[in-house]
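Sample pair:
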Amino acid sequence: MSRALIIVDVQNDFCEGGSLAVAGGAAVAKGISLVLDKAGDRWDHVVATKDWHIDPGTHFSDTPDFVDSWPVHCVAESTGSDFHPELVTDRIEAVFHKGEYAAAYSGFEGHGQDGETLAGWLRAKGVTEVEVVGIATDHCVRATALDAATEGFRTTVLLELTAGVARATTDAALEQLRAASVETTGEPVVDA
């Protein structure tokens, strides 16, 4: 059995001060780094995802509905798309970009530098189990964990290392995860 940690979208624009900030994002970045330092041998592999928008169409809006459309965020090659400085990245073996030309919430919709998918990369490394952390619990973490389970990986979300946008959508995401037999630990940081 091989286990991987998937770090979802711990980027400047999703942390305090970013264009689509989630309360607690910077603390999540720091927390992930601490866990990697203290329990680094827990994972055989560590990967990360990034929102990486070039022209995502109606995903960006000047009048966002915060369901299907959002303020401009994580534009490819921008400071907002960079990993948050509190996230130590030296253990990250591969980064999977998603959302260049359309909305994409799951890391499994993304691709690595050579075009490889996240599922393909994990299978090539013999991974059978994944643990998911990052931002936001109710959007990209949820979607990535659900797709991981669909792809056949035993999936756990370490909620204590996630931050959610809102209580109602985070609670709904937790219900979806449980219904899909995704295991969870802890509680997410979430704005009231």
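The beta strands are 2-8, 45-51, 94-98, 127-135, 154-164, 183-185, 189-190.
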